[in-house]
């Protein structure tokens, strides 16, 4: 079956103007042009358009989509499976946030009460959802989906005591970065302790530690200004660079 540009636009719910643009940039060419000069689209074009719309829904740019669609079918499937896992994780986090809001409404109305432990569990889930929203895409560029799920699960299983020690460890790290920034002569002397504190902090969420992964994380801290600002805003400008250098010095 063949479709005119109007029929195809109506079929998938987009504008004819969009289809003309896709033709112009060679993203979706019609199967043929009729004698009257009308664009005609066949089953292959419909399938390709469905793929384009799927990737657009995932916020890929048209340039990226053009590159993606040059991949072999098995690679496309593998990539989409990764995207599916990511979306499922986001859906789970969103559901947990919805439940937390519903619970808070009941508490505000005096209908329900929560124990400290229940509030702590909700807090951890909300923190995971916040981290996913802020840094999910960047983290997935560096780590596999199973690694991310394992780390999130370990964080979700932290006890109040473990979480408290984890927070205290991070605060010790930030204070040491502050004092090191204030006295540059202590940088080399403090590198080992800075590394150990950061490693200890990581082990509360990392199922498996490796120096290579630790170095990779340190590089990401500097590569993305949002990660850089996490330590620079808490310990002072330049703290992230000191942290990265300390990790590298200790893992040579």
Could you walk me through the main structural features you see in this protein, from its secondary elements to its overall organization?
This protein is mainly α and about 250 residues long. It folds into three domains: about 5-70, Multidrug-efflux Transporter Regulator, Chain: A, Domain 2 (Orthogonal Bundle); about 75-155, no CATH class; about 160-250, Globin-like (Orthogonal Bundle), CATH 1.10.490. Helix content is about 75%, strand content about 5%. It is built from twelve helices and three strands; from the N terminus they run E-H-H-E-E-H-H-H-H-H-H-H-H-H-H. The chain has a three-stranded antiparallel beta sheet. A hairpin with a 5-residue loop joins strand 2 and strand 3 (about 40). The longest helix is centred in the middle third of the chain and has 36 residues, at about 75-110. It is elongated, with a radius of gyration of 25 Å. The termini are far apart. About 15% of the residues are buried. The mean pLDDT is about 85.
| Number of discrete helical segments | 12
Q: What fold name stands as the CATH topology of the largest domain?
A: Globin-like
Overall pLDDT: 87
Please state how the strands of the largest beta sheet are arranged side by side: 1-3-2
Strand content: under 5%
Which structural category do the helix and sheet elements fall into?
mainly alpha
Helix share of residues? over 70%
The domain tally reads: 3
Shape: elongated
Radius of gyration: 25 Å
Distance between the termini: 64 Å
What is the chains' assembly state?
single chain
């Amino acid at each position: 079956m063949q479709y005119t540009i109007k029929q195809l636009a109506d079929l998938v719910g987009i504008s004819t103007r969009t289809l003309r643009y896709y033709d112009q940039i060679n993203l979706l060419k019609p199967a043929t042009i009729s004698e009257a000069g009308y664009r005609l689209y066949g089953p292959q074009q419909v399938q390709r358009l469905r793929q384009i719309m799927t990737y657009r829904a995932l916020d890929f740019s048209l340039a990226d989509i053009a590159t993606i669609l040059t991949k072999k079918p098995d690679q496309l499937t593998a990539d989409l499976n990764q995207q599916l896992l990511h979306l499922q994780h986001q859906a789970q986090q969103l559901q947990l946030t919805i439940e937390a809001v519903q619970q808070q409404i009941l508490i505000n109305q005096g209908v329900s009460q929560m124990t400290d432990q229940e509030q702590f569990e909700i807090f951890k889930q909300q923190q995971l959802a916040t981290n996913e929203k802020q840094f999910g895409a960047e983290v997935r560029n560096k780590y596999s989906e199973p690694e991310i799920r394992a780390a999130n699960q370990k964080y979700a299983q932290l006890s109040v005591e473990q979480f408290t020690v984890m927070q205290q460890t991070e605060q010790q790290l930030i204070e040491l970065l502050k004092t090191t920034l204030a006295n540059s002569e202590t940088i080399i002397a403090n590198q080992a302790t800075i590394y150990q504190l950061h490693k200890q902090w990581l082990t509360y969420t990392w199922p498996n530690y490796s120096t290579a992964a630790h170095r990779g994380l340190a590089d990401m801290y500097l590569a993305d200004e949002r990660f850089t600002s996490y330590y620079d805003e808490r310990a002072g400008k330049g703290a992230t660079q000191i942290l990265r250098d300390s990790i590298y010095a200790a893992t040579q």
